[in-house]
């Protein structure tokens, strides 16, 4: 939600309650709170970078709503099933209270607004800054949108609403797992998602001592805990680009995300590459998969002394990098 849109809504009929707690589900970490009272505001955020940003600013942050609230604000996520689940949670956590839905039009705000009009009496709505904000009173109109925290997919793996590739393993992760040699020592899976790649790596690598799964999305990490039962697994709710490994790593595997919102942004994958180089021991190695069009080779050459494409298809490339370059030390780079 933009503070501009919330303030605009308040100026055009949105009457926020004068007392009682207010929850904000999915609050982006870079948002302004606008007209909201920070002393009454509770941020509900399961994405580690956003949660950390709010905590630094002194706001109360919780992983799930714990009402009762006088009002709940919901920032629309990209995934429709997660949006519906959040609205059902908001309604349950604010009986008789105010529900405010805000979202970008590119995230489906218009479609969800239409769906809500058949269920609730919309008290008001505004359009501003390429998005929509609407509000209504909580009842039980969205009980059928409630979803379990996790449920099995067709393969029997536990997945949660809105997690990436919930229907089954991402083909890129499958390609990476098939290309990997047996790994040894201490390994990390950066951006581990719901755990498919980590589980495959552990199954094929008896020489691994510990595998750290690092994932920023708490629902996905909770699923990984259920899916990866190998005692060598360690789980970390954190931003993979900022995570501080508890020990030097012998290998990093990753299928890094490359979207910020709905926009592709290769800088995210490049940040994963830089993070991997910082974490690896001197003889550590990086194995990663990427869509073929993504320009990661330059970033790899900046951070590793050896870079090579070792496998791939018309869609994916499997990249291997070794000899991480430490800050302040130049090493000649060989690619091939």
From TrEMBL:
InterPro entries given in the database record: RsmC/RlmG, SAM-dependent_MTases_sf, Small_mtfrase_dom
SUPFAM superfamilies membership: S-adenosyl-L-methionine-dependent methyltransferases
GO MF assignments: S-adenosylmethionine-dependent methyltransferase activity
Chain segments annotated as transmembrane: none
Methyltransferase small domain residues: 160-319
Single GO biological process annotation from the record: methylation
Any Pfam family the entry gives: MTS
Keyword Transferase set for record: yes
UniProt keyword annotations, A-Z: Methyltransferase, S-adenosyl-L-methionine, Transferase
S-adenosyl-L-methionine listed as a keyword: yes
Listed name of the protein: Class I SAM-dependent methyltransferase
């Amino acid at each position: 939600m933009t503070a501009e849109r919330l303030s605009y809504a308040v100026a055009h009929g949105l009457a926020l309650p004068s007392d009682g707690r207010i929850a904000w589900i999915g609050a982006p970490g870079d948002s302004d709170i606008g007209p909201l009272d920070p002393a009454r505001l509770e941020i509900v955020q399961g994405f580690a970078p956003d949660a950390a940003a709010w905590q630094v600013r002194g706001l109360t942050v919780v992983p799930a709503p714990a009402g009762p609230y006088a009002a709940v604000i919901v920032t629309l996520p990209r995934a429709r099933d997660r949006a519906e689940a959040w609205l059902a949670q908001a309604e349950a956590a604010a009986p008789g209270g105010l529900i405010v839905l805000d979202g970008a039009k590119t995230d489906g705000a218009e479609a969800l607004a239409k769906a809500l009009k058949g269920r609730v009496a919309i008290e008001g709505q505004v359009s501003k800054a390429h998005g929509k904000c609407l509000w209504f009173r909580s009842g039980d109109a969205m009980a059928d949108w409630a979803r379990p925290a996790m449920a099995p997919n067709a393969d029997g793996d536990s997945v949660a609403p809105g997690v990436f590739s919930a229907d089954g393993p991402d083909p890129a992760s499958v390609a990476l797992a098939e290309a990997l040699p047996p790994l040894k020592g201490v390994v990390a899976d950066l951006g581990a998602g719901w755990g498919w790649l980590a589980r495959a790596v552990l199954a094929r690598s008896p020489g691994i001592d510990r595998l750290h799964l690092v994932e920023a999305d708490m629902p996905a990490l909770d699923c990984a805990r259920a899916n990866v039962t190998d005692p060598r697994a360690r789980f970390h709710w954190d931003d993979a680009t900022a995570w501080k490994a508890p020990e030097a790593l012998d290998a990093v595997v990753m299928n890094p995300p490359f979207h910020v919102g709905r926009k592709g942004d290769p800088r995210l994958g490049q940040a994963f590459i830089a993070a991997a180089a910082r974490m690896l021991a001197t003889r550590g190695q990086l194995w990663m998969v990427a869509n073929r069009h993504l320009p990661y080779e330059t970033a790899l050459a900046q951070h590793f002394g050896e870079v090579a494409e070792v496998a791939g298809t018309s869609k994916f490339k499997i990249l291997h990098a070794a000899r991480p370059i430490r800050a302040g030390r130049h090493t000649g780079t060989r690619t091939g």
